[in-house]
Please model this.
Amino acid sequence: MASDHDHEVPALSASERDRYRRHLILPGVGPEGQQRLKAARVLIVGAGGLGSPVALYLAAAGVGTLGLVDHDVVDLTNLQRQLLHGTRDVGRSKLESARDRLHEVNPHVHVVPHDRWLTSANALEIMRGYDVVVDGTDNFATRYLVNDACVLLGIPNVHGSVFRFDGQASVFATPDGPCYRCLHPEPPPPDMVPNCAEGGVLGVLPGLVGTVQATETLKLLLGMGDTLAGRLLMIDAFGMAFRTVRLTRDPSCPACGTRTLTHLIDYDQFCGTPGRHANADARVDEVTPATLRAWLASGEPLQLIDVREPTETAAGIIEGARCLPLGTLAEALHTLPRQVRTVLVCQSGVRSARAARQLMAAGFPAVHSLVGGMMRWPEG
Model:
């Protein structure tokens, strides 16, 4: 499916003709297809594990405009799989790091940074005008948001997801195909499916899935080949097995079926999550391992809560911590003193931040999250 947007098709410079020589001799691409790629606009949501290979390969292929949506900084734990970033980028904005890396790959590509989290308030504004949206997110709320915005705007959604050794990819929201809601009519119960920071991921797996996403994106832009629209590709990296299943549009789907979904909703509420990024006012106060050690050494009143699962805490906890898995925290709120400084701990800092927002919403006045979690605790 070629782009429906009427972009002016720019001519290729001598440098570009040399750079894309292997494309220019490729049946189905050629000079006309390469010019189409140069005129194309692709939005990548997330400059992380999936966004890295997608952005690198689309830049190398000569997609003229790449939009990147992210509002995070590079962390040392990212480097195991997020190849847009390097060791010297730790602490930098992911968008700055990605822009510099992509310009090294191909200076002809225009990188448009969207330095904010994607929300129901800004998604349509950000996504409007792009030919394809690539979903490189790691949470259900944003996946539903990307899907619904793509359906409303009529933009193909190239989906990918990874967890531990398993990956999936598909193309949603094409004119005749199903959307993400047809595959997942209802989100899973909150906290039943941990993200990669909580459950781990084989570092090479996002590269595998992201490369599939980049391939599907190029086929959509060039209008060639059979895309994954109407199919779900499932990858088992542990057993190195690939299989596809057919997907059909659900006539009762409120997004692409009945079309009763006419505006974007509160996706954190829909997914039963407290809103990791959507509410800027719910910013969590993070504490470093060194600061937490100083607080513990001072003897001041402090309650330390470890929200990891028992299988994780069995490997060790910070002395004095109370173990309350995140899924049980709401039930235990009445047992926690409110006027004492509270520090939440998990494996990487993701669940502890989520728990901190939960306590803040319940009226706890002094709540902190251990940045980097137990993965950084030995550094302190």
